[in-house]
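Sat 14:20. Reprocessing the chain from the morning session after the first attempt stalled halfway. Input below, unchanged.
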Amino acid sequence: MEKNAIIECVPNFSEGTDLSVIKQITDSIEKVEGVMLLDVDPGKATNRTVVTFVGHPDAVIEAAFQAIKTASLLIDMSKHTGEHPRMGATDVCPLIPVSGISMDETAQYAHKLAERVSKELSIPVYMYEYAQPIQSRKNLSVIRAGEYEGFFDKIKLPEWKPDYGQAIMPVKSGATVIGARDFLIAYNVNLNTTSVRLANSVAFDVREAGRVKREGNPITGKVVKDNEGNDVRIPGTLKAVKAIGWFIEEYGIAQISMNLINYKITSVHQAFDEVCRSAQSRGLRVTGSELVGLIPLDALIEAGKYYLQKQKRSIGVSEKELIHIAVKSLGLDELTPFDPDKKIIEYRMKKAESEKLINMTLRSFADETASESPAPGGGSISAYTGAIGAALGTMVANLSAGKRGWEEHITMFSAAAETGQQIKDELLLLVDEDTRAFNKIMNAFGLPKQTEEEKKHRTAVIEAETKHACEVPFQVMQVAYRTLDMLELMIEKGNPNSITDAGVGVLCIKTAVRGAYFNVSVNAQGLKDRVYAEDIKQKASILLAENHNRADALLTKVEAAIK
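Finished this time. Tokens:
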């Protein structure tokens, strides 16, 4: 596995209507440093939300665990209803290798996550796809057969003992399935009918598993068995495709719900055209389609080229035009508008990255700070000021390392520059984290408070988020303070021509630490846990005094040197 390995996680949660529950689950993901939340796709009819996030494998499985934990606390499966098959609050949690990591290594992470979920949350876990060594238990639909209601008996069968955890079905959380798989495209095709029977007929025509073979009447006839007593199946027309038919009350139509397990084997456009052929043969018409979650860019590019070639037109058009042709040809905008920035994984990653404060231009960052929005505010500015202070010290270290005649000091200055880079990067991450912490408090205040249970939960969330909003600026104080060691070295032994740059760096650190201290203090005022509040305020006060004393001593040295 490479150092910068990235995996994707696409957990499916059995809640699609209560936005406050969904928000708390996604908040638990975003709290984990090193992950990027790309997409949240709730469905009312299915009562199910598909979440997509990416990051380093260690960060991703930590975020996945926190999300599974939050879902188990907030979702009661004994009260859940929905069109989609399900067996738990977190119904399925696949890990997908994106770059710098093999499928085998991804499967190992899936097992690591499953073991922790079973031990710490007492949720039975089944492995699937590449993380499941037993061939008969690789298929998600086979594992999930019987769904939540049927699992109270199924889990007791010897052949269905969970891979991790006890063979006891928890009433509230249910069980979950964790695995490693290739990139899967969740894709629904819309029909001009309300008949689930007809939709299922089309689904059976196209899915790889096909349908069972019957004598005489294909619906009511006796199932044909082979010599070993197994059902004989008539395979469908599409490889690496799972499909079922269902009725979506929200839209008033039946759909073919498909999972394209490997879109390199069966593409989106091939699946769409094959459903069109089957539907037409049964007197139906396809009216459009929809994506659930994200799709890789190349899948839509290939679809655009395919449909242009069918029209006998040149495929040498822009990427934007290819995407437009694909969307219109597949009818991806029939039910809801299709936004490429939100639905194409590569575009979504770029957009999420560009939305970070630290990726703005200086002017954009200043304009955003000067706007009427309360965030970014003093906390983010303090973190950024500290990052600039570390950057100035790092510049002096690099200039000193390159100074002619100072070759014997290269190792010392190089190490100092490396330390400065690390501190700068830590503080830049905290620029966005401080704003996120503030926004999460505001979101917590927006939680429902009609019932006593809702009020209690809202109060608990506000308290937790306020504590986090104290911890972030305190971390800014701690990280920024570490910069003074490097800046002191630059003032005393660095290139004398750059001593004022190091001095300005000290001023930045002094401001950063005091500014962050302000945020610790003001946020602590709103805490009900006064023991915690007084403790963190005391720690912050001690650190503030130490920082100011050291900073003032260093500034005195700079002023003496330039007189």
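The chain has a mean pLDDT of 91.
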